Amino acid sequence: MTTLVRGVQPGEVEGLWARIAPLIERGLNRAGGCFGLADVRRSFIERRRQLWVVWPETSCVLVTEQIDYPLKRVLHVFLVAGCLPADWRDLWRGIERWAAAQGCADIEIRGRPGWMRLLDDYEGRMIFMRKELQP
Question: How far apart are CA 45 and CA 48, in angstroms?
Answer without folding.
Answer: 8
